[in-house]
Amino acid sequence: MTDQQSASTVTAPPRVLASHAEAMDAARELGPRLRARVPEAERLRRLPDETVADLLESGLLGVMQPRAFGGSELGAETLIDVSVELAAQCASSGWVYMLWAAHMWLLALWPAAAQEEMFADPAMVASSVVSTAGTVERADGGYLWTGRGFFSSGVDHCQWLTAAISVRDPETGAEGRKWFLLPRADFEITDDWHVIGLRGTGSKTLVVTDAFIPHGRVLDDADIQRGTAPGRAVNPHPMYGAISQANFTAAMAAPAIGAARGLLAAYADKLRPKAAGAVTSMARYAAVAAQVDAVHALTVANARRYSTLPAAEVGPEGRAKVKRDYAYTAQESRRAANAVYEECGGGGLKESSDLQRIWRDANAAAAHHGLTWDWQADQWTRAAFGLPAPGVNA
Length: 394
Hints:
By secondary structure, the protein is an alpha+beta fold. The chain is built from twelve helices and eight strands. β4 (160-168) and β5 form a beta hairpin.
């Protein structure tokens, strides 16, 4: 398979997982294989084909996918915990898994005809671009888009793309976000992912030229935020009528948590032989482990509270709180990884060391714009104080 082909050649149909526990067992089973492929993922600057096939066949990509279309509908808590588990072994795999699995929730909101087309392929995966540029024109039956999209993780293996586009209403002049759904034939991939962390995610730039997006492949973000997207007609599970912040982006901080856990595990291997006389290091290890456990629990608590609650029952403060908390979680996970790395000494500087690689990944996983602390903290404080908050939901 080439870099530009989809990873639709799997040897077995995806499993349908019965429970959170079964999903976690599947994630733990995959862990050693993902870890063994880390050097290959870094060399390719995308996930190896074998990893994509493993993720598909395991059924883990279906935890947010509707049962009506072959998924397990296990929900956001499972998405978070599986993402953490996979990222602890390979942060790039955990990052791409998190995005692909979360996209199954978003795809479930499109009209039934679009879902039937996408989910007809049991090996279907989709990526997205949220940061976009270009021009949008209204056309008979839909829109024409020419532009670019940035940081599309895992896109080399994808058959579909969701693109968040700002569209001006010709009558009111107001700008509003819409989601365009594009098949693989409608975009080109620019091989520009040369980075110091999360090298295996292949988060590349896309180029789109005069792509036609029919109305049946367009979602209004306002409908998503209200919990009234057309996909609700065929997918009655409550999570598809809940807020996107607790579903689509619920696990954004999970790869950072997983990377911090991975660094703790690597450091434990270094610490264990001299643990009897390393009182200071032992205390630091315990403090960092507790820090990571705490923010993981915070993320899960938000998923339990908000991921199936009707969107109409969650106001601006609640939505901003979820985003505040996963930004906080990512940044605390970054700090935890840095605190561990400070204890790694000269050996941790070697390019052959897992310590420096995981440290790079942990910091990269917290660098996403949506995880920027100052921005999310400002948004939540404004909402808590009843002040207007500029910007759009993500």
